[in-house]
Specification:
This protein is mainly α. It is elongated, with a radius of gyration of 18 Å. Helix content is 77%, strand content 0%. It contains six helices and no strands.
Length: 141
């Protein structure tokens, strides 16, 4: 399996983060320009943003929580040249779960859907880490 195959899901995860950043930035700029939100209402992180903007912002912030473990793992796998088809499939599954999570987070924000989607992504990431650890430890013996 080519090492490059693991870079594609990584790029999609990074793209998701930037899309959410741009979306959030445009929404916030628009809200401030229209004076719907005043700078002093949100300058210190107060909850002064409208609910819809908060959804997008929370989804953006969420990309710096669990996905950090994904980034670290992918970089380790690439650095150690341990990429295999299992990791590539799991990486795509994780990124698809993150896309689904962001979609739910920024639309209905239904916790009955968002929670399980988040949990599936976490489970996939744990399996990725376990698979990596097993292969790494087996190669180290």
């Amino acid at each position: 399996m080519s090492q490059v195959a693991l870079v594609y899901p990584l790029l999609v995860q990074v793209a998701l983060t930037f899309v959410l950043l741009i979306w959030m930035g445009r929404r916030r700029t628009s809200l401030l320009a229209s004076k719907e939100v005043r700078p002093e209402q949100v300058a210190l992180g107060q909850p002064g943003w409208p609910p819809r903007e908060t959804q997008v912002s929370n989804s953006f912030s969420n990309q710096f929580e669990v996905p950090v473990l994904f980034y670290v793992l992918v970089l380790l796998i690439l650095h150690l040249r341990m990429s295999d088809v299992v990791h590539v499939i799991l990486a795509w599954a994780f990124v698809l779960s993150r896309l689904a999570h962001a979609f739910v987070h920024t639309t209905s924000n239904d916790l009955r859907v968002r929670g399980p989607v988040y949990g599936i992504g976490m489970l996939i990431l744990m399996v990725m880490w376990i698979w990596f650890a097993v292969r790494f430890l087996a190669a180290s013996v």
